[in-house]
Amino acid sequence: MVRYKGITLSSNDSVPSPRTEPYQLSDPLASFFDLNVYGQRNVLFFNKAFIDDNGNDTQHYTFRLNNHFQGVVRHMDGQHFIFSGSNTFDDTACLFVFKLNSYLANAANDEFRQKFIRSNTIIPNDDEHMDNVEFIYNFPGPYWHAGGISLLGDILVCPLENKDLHKRSKICFINFRNPSRPKLYKTEIYRDYAAGCASMTKLKNKHFLLAVWTEDNGHKLDFYLSNSKNLSNGFSSEITVPFEDFKNRHDNIKPRFQCIQMIQNNDGSKIYIIGTDKGRVPKHDGSYSFPNRRFIMYIDLDHATKRTNDPILITPEVTIFPHWEMPNGGESYNFNAVGGYYVHDNQLYMYGGSTFRVQSKSNIRITEFAPSLKPTPKCDLLEDAIVELYTENE
Predict the structure, then answer these.
(1) What CA–CA distance (Å, rounded) separates 158 from 138?
(2) Rounded CA gap, 261 and 211, in Å?
(3) Residue by residue, what is the 3-state secondary structure of 201-252?
(4) pLDDT greater at residue 77 or residue 110
(5) Which among 354, 152, 173, 169 has a CA at the least distance from the CA of 261?
(6) Which residues are within 8 A (CB) of 160 and not within 5 positions of it... i.e. 6 or more apart?
(7) Tens digits of residue pLDDT in 200-213
């Protein structure tokens, strides 16, 4: 099998320092529950990224286990989307960087670069040339399975797995300030257990708090605190909170998170984790339903973790709130794999994507779930208006 065209990530490049502003919302709980359950559908194109030297399309990311996309984030510039993926054809974990242009084609100004991407499937444009993959980056080394990713400012957090190794997973950090020149941090966290998804935030004391979700040896969240205000100085040993210790948990609902994202309130005094999964819910007739779901959890940190001088990680208290179920995403999104969150201008957005690419068209689907629109009696500017159109037949 001919390897697709990817650039190996490196720690050697000299790049600008990353921005590390955490996602903040005035009311994270209200923003979470205000998200629309219906989304705007989009198609992103790979063009010839998977065409081999003989002009044939390969089978990368088209079918079967361990040959799929896993996570998605939206860059701070609003225009780039980054997908994580893995495949066993060449045992490589990858990041795919897409640049979207069609949603800006009729926008009045650059202010819209970081807002709704709307849909590129309702009114056809030349999307194959406007919304396509710009870069493919390969992770070096034997950890070939990339999990659910997240962003803290420009820092992308990516868990990698190889269950054949003694250390089954590691957490990597990538400076993505410039999507065309990402830099892999030398700081890594090696773990005894698998790592399904991970997210990081920056506390008021300027230390970094990392959360990792795993279902290896039990469903649980593992937390790490940076040793200093500099990410390059590494992290403390992990502190684990088993799902059985979550407050308000429901005995019949055990999440299997594929994506998590840490979010704060505006003054940084409250920390939340939001996540997506696909449930396996028993029905009365003995069969199962598999709903797409979103969750939110409150992370109550001990004073010793939040203090300014010499903070230490004490076991946090995790409270989980009632989840929301989402409609069937068909080929447009599947929270058993691709999910992610984004915050801009006190607005929360959620993204879901397809597990595989459509080989015949070499594209991937992504759906944007935006805040619910509030009716207004008057709209002075066309660019302030948006029409919501949905179909579940795609």
Answers:
(1) 12
(2) 9
(3) EECCCCCEEEEEEECCCCCEEEEEEECCCCHHHCECCCEEEEHHHCECCCCC
(4) 77
(5) 152
(6) 93, 139, 143, 144, 145, 146, 147, 169, 170, 171, 172, 195
(7) 999 999 999 999 99
